[in-house]
Design brief:
single chain; mainly beta; 7-stranded mixed beta sheet; 11 strands
């Protein structure tokens, strides 16, 4: 499975961005991870391919929404009320499992930069 992420950019605090991840085929689940400068990559959100189950990191609950349009093989991450601490490179990933663990994801997109200014 090949993944193509897009939608990053520069936004002021309190603003919104929507990330997209186009997949070349279907998988069991898709997720978003992020890596801020000097930090390890961390889990952000995940969704089952059916869209029936989602999971979020505590730091983004209530602000971010993950969704999937199976007809388009595309997952989205709607990010609202962005904070400077959300600044990171965001990666989409696909997995044969249901997991928040990075090692459970077999396929990775190239990453897209999100910068939130204060």
């Amino acid at each position: 499975v090949q993944l193509q992420a897009s939608g990053g950019g520069l936004v002021q605090a309190g603003g919104s961005l929507r990330l997209s991840c186009a997949a070349s085929g279907r998988t069991f689940s898709m997720g978003w991870f992020r890596q801020a400068p000097g930090k390890e990559r961390e889990f952000v959100a995940a969704i089952r391919w059916s869209g029936s189950i989602t999971n979020y990191a505590d730091s983004v609950k209530g602000r971010f929404t993950i969704s999937i349009v199976t007809a388009e093989n595309t997952a989205y991450l709607q990010m609202n009320t962005l904070k400077p601490e959300d600044t990171a490179v965001y990666y989409c990933a696909a997995s044969k499992y249901w997991s928040v663990l990075e090692r459970r994801y077999d396929y990775w997109g190239q990453g897209t930069q999100v910068t939130v200014s204060s």
